[in-house]
Structure formats: C-alpha cells, structure tokens
Design brief:
It comes from Meloidogyne javanica (Root-knot nematode worm). Pfam families: MA3 (PF02847), MIF4G (PF02854). This protein is mainly α. The chain has 24 helices and no strands. The protein folds into 3 domains: 83 residues, no CATH class; 139 residues, Alpha Horseshoe (Serine Threonine Protein Phosphatase 5, Tetratricopeptide repeat); 190 residues, Alpha Horseshoe (Serine Threonine Protein Phosphatase 5, Tetratricopeptide repeat), CATH 1.25.40. The chain is 66% helix and 0% strand. The longest helix is centred in the N-terminal third of the chain and has 30 residues.
Length: 538
C-alpha cells in the first residue's frame, strides 16, 4: 500500500513538472524571453528530475516532454565528447558522435566545437580533423560549422576584435588544410585583411599564413609570394641600416629653404565625401580673349622669380626643342638607312638587366620556370655573359648551396655552346680568385662547379687552371679543391671519379692536379688527397 502511494506521488510530480516546463516554454515563445531557458537552448532540468522524466515518458516518444529530455541528453553527449577530444581518441569520439542523431543536433555540434576551439586554439588542428570526419558523412554539418566561423570572423573583423579574429582564422585555416574549406576562402580572407593593412590585420594575416601556408603553396603554387617576401625582407634590412642608402633627399636636391616650403594637406579621401576634381579641361586648348594681358602679367611674375638673366635665352627655347627633334629624326633616318643597330650598353642598362634577372629568378618556383622566363628575354650577345655571371652571383650569395642554380646553369649550358664556354671560363676565374671568397661563397661555388662537372654541362678541361703544389696553392684554394672533389665522389662514386680523372683525353688538363714532373710536388699531391680521405684517386 505504501509503495503504491509513492509511485502515484512520483507520477503526479513528473506530470506536473512536464506541464510546468511546457507552460514555461509557451510563455517564453509569447514573451520573447525567459529566466528558465538557458542560453544553450531549452530549459535547465536537474539530472535526477531528468532521469525520472525519461523513465516515465520512455514509451511516449511523440510527446514534447520526451523530445525535450532527449534534446538535453543529445546536447550533453555532444558537449561531453567534444570536451574529451584529443589526438589519441579522435576516432572513438567520432564513432560515438556518429551514433547520435547529428542531423538533429548539427547546431549543437557546430556551437560546441566552435566554443571548444575558442577556449583551446592550440588544438585547432584536432577539432578540424573531427569536423573533417563528420563532414565526410554529413557535408551539411561541415558547411554549417564553416558558415558560422565565417560570420564570427567577419563580425570580429568589423569590431576590431583581434583575439576572436585570430581564433576564427586558425580554425578556418585548419579546415582548409583538411579540405573542408576551399582555398579560395583563405585567399579572400587574405585579400580582406590586407586591403587596409594595420598592425592587427598583419598579425592575423601572419597567423593565417603560418597555419595554412604550406597548403596554399601546394594547391596554388602560382600564388607564391617569394618575390614579395624578398622585398619585405629587403625593406626590413633597409630599416635596420637606418635608410643609409635611401636618404630623404640628396644634398644636391635640397634647394628650398624651410620657410619657403609649402606642404599641401591633401587627404586620400576628402572629408566632404566627394571625389577630387582632376580638372581635365586644363589639358584642352581654350581660347583666351585677354591673351596679351595675361602674358604681360606672367612676365612680371617671371621677372620677380628669376629676374632678367634668362630673357635672352628664353625666346630660343622652342627653336632649340624643334632643332633637337629634327636632329633626332635625322639620326633615326640615318640608322634605318644604314641598317645599324645601336646597343646602349651603359652601366645603368647593365644594372637594370641584372636586376630583372635577379627578380625573375626569385619569382620562379623551379629552375625550369626560371629558364623559360630568361630565354624569353631574347638576349643580345653582349648580355649573355651578364646572365651567366648573374646566375653565379645569385648562387654564391645564398647561405647554403641550392641545387636550383646548378640545374639552371646546366640548362643554359645545354641550350647553347656560348653559355657553356662562359660557365667554363667562370669556373676557371673562380679558382684564380678563390682567395677573395668567404667560406660560404667558396663552398657554394665548389658545389656549383661540381654539379656542372657531374652532369657534363661543362668540360673537365677546367681543371687545367689548378696546380696542386705547395707554392701554387693557397689555403682557400686547397679548401675549394677539397669540397669540389668530395662533392664529385659523393655524387659520382669514388670509382667513377677515378676513371674520369685518369681519362686519357684529360691527361693534359690533369697534369697540374696530379703532378708527376717533380717528386716533391707528387708527394704533396698524394699527401693532400690522403688527408681529405681520397687517397685512392692518386
């Protein structure tokens, strides 16, 4: 009898609770707000009360009370699984979530994972991996997460909320890495961030590029910013040297006293919101009915500014210009008649050419692209040597040897014999001037020449410049030979290098490297190669 009364009381309590929740929900819908509805969505139900409701309402799944209880359970399940997510259990968490009705709870999933990532940005890659798994089964859920992140990013960008902006960027970047988001979204974000660069927007951009730069380089190689990166690094170096080579103005051009200077406060965007009038009508001839009067007034102004000293030469200005034009036309006619092509090979043109070559090399992704661009220059004979020397100079300036330059030089050697001869001469000149090189340049040049020798891009006759004796070598020269031969042996093997050095057709070129004219020189060469671990070559 006592047990029956307890069950009746519990049943009555549950029914009243469900009715109360239902009434509260209706009141919320009518009033637009409530203190019983949590921000997470739905009324808060204590766990004990929730279990009692589930037991009582388990049979009637069509009731609102049951569905509300199921919603709360789904919310706690999703939230709990996301909170325990890490690299080691991501598969188990994904399986557990997929067992639930994620289509119904997609909003809960999106909110929970965005909140979790905001609290732990360093785990963005883990959360993105989970989204990628869910997205592979339910693309609409992945899209929902992405749309919410975009809205969050745009809102924080407008509000100058850097922290939220960085957090959203990290998540979107890793979603792009996981191919949940297309790389176009990342590129659009970069464009938006750099439209009006500020300290904060640059910081967000750097964060975005650090997280997904490798992906962008892989899927959009044409968007590589090596040249821009070089320009920025150059700018930072210029700033570090306090703009030593870029003064405000040259002394020869500092001609106006400060009292006479007039600075115009012209803003980029006028304060009245209107655009500036370019006054294009001033470019068109217009009849002046008071021409003589205006000319006289200007004469007075001119005399006040520059005086009468230039009056005599002033009238002849137009005639001189006309004479110069006629002389230029005559020169052009004479050149056309004679068929002579005049090449302006002044120092300024050579510097401009070298600068163009350098920028072309730096903006190319690989040596093939660089070679293709440089060949399109239609080089004149006088500039072929400059091109070869520029490739060598670029190689020598690197912190470590880059095979890019060896492959590029090899391509030009195979393209035309003139290039091959130039690089052979450079190899000879390099050894003769090796004592002027620092260790980095020396090492780069040794490996560069070794590559050309290994690929037979240049002839091994270049060794004719070397005389391996105590009197004819310097410490730098001996280090150069050591690095060169160690590179040859590493890439070609000791046996192949030995055969090439003892090739009958190369004996004349190798006489200086392996001297036999004097026992003292022979011993020196043998001892040298033995000390560098290549005694078998002798």
């Amino acid at each position: 009898m006592g047990n029956d009364s307890v069950e009746e009381t519990a049943t009555e309590f549950i029914e009243r609770s469900a009715d109360t929740i239902e009434k509260d929900a209706k009141n919320v819908n009518a009033s637009g707000g409530s203190n019983t509805i949590s921000k997470a969505g739905g009324a808060y139900i204590p766990p004990a009360r929730l279990r009692m409701m589930q037991q009582h309402l388990g049979a009637d799944k069509s009731s609102e009370a049951y569905q509300r209880a199921n919603w709360e359970r789904l919310k706690r399940k999703i939230h709990g699984q996301i909170n325990r997510l890490n690299v080691s259990n991501i598969v188990d968490v994904a399986r557990t979530l997929l067992r639930e009705n994620l289509i119904r709870g997609r909003g809960l999933f999106a909110r929970s994972i965005i909140q979790a990532q905001a609290f732990s940005p360093s785990f963005s890659h883990v959360f993105a991996a989970l989204v990628a798994i869910i997205n592979s089964k339910f693309p609409n859920i992945g899209e929902l997460v992405l749309r919410r992140l975009i809205i969050q990013f745009k809102r924080s960008f407008r509000r100058n909320d850097k922290q939220t902006c960085v957090t959203a960027c990290k998540f979107i970047a890793h979603l792009a890495n996981q191919r949940v988001a297309h790389e176009i979204l990342v590129l659009e974000m970069l464009v938006l961030l750099m439209q009006r660069p500020t300290d904060d927007s640059i910081e967000v951009t750097v964060t975005l590029l650090k997280e997904c730069g490798a992906m962008l380089l892989k899927v959009t190689p044409k968007g590589s910013i090596e040249r821009t990166q070089y320009m920025i690094e150059t700018m930072l170096h210029i700033r570090k040297t306090k703009f030593e080579n870029y003064p405000i103005m040259l002394e020869e051009l500092d001609l106006i006293d400060e009292d006479d200077q007039i600075a115009h406060l012209v803003q980029l965007n006028p304060e009245d919101g209107k655009s500036y009038d370019p006054e294009l009508t001033l470019n068109i001839f217009k009849y002046d009915p008071e021409f003589e009067k205006n000319e006289e007034e200007y004469d007075d102004i001119r005399k006040e500014i520059i005086g009468d000293a230039d009056d005599e030469g002033g009238d002849g200005g137009d005639n001189d210009e006309e004479a110069d034009d006629e002389n230029e036309e005559e020169k052009r006619a004479a050149e056309t008649t004679a068929g002579v092509v005049i090449l302006d090979m002044t120092e300024q043109d050579i510097v401009a050419f070298r600068r163009n070559v350098y920028l072309t090399i730096q903006s190319s992704l690989d040596f093939q692209e660089a070679a293709h661009k440089l060949i399109k220059y239609e080089l004149k004979p006088q500039l072929e040597n400059e091109l070869c020397h520029m490739i060598v100079d670029c190689c020598a300036q690197q912190r470590t040897y880059q095979s890019f330059y060896g492959l590029l030089a090899e391509r030009f050697c195979r393209l035309r014999k003139e290039f091959q001869e130039t690089f052979e001469q450079i190899a000879r000149d390099t050894y003769n001037a090796i004592h002027r090189f620092d260790h980095t340049k020396l090492q780069n040049m040794a490996k560069f020449v070794a590559h050309l020798l290994i690929t037979d891009a240049i002839s091994w006759e270049v060794f004719s410049e070397i005389k391996l004796t105590e009197q004819d070598t310097t410490s730098a020269g001996r280090i150069y030979i050591k690095i060169l031969f160690l590179e040859l042996v590493e890439k070609m093997s000791l046996v192949t290098t030995y055969k090439r050095c003892n090739d009958p057709t190369l004996q004349t070129a190798m006489e200086g490297l392996f001297p036999r004219d004097n026992p003292q020189n022979t011993r020196f060469a043998i001892n040298y190669f033995s000390l560098i671990g290549l005694g078998a070559l002798t």
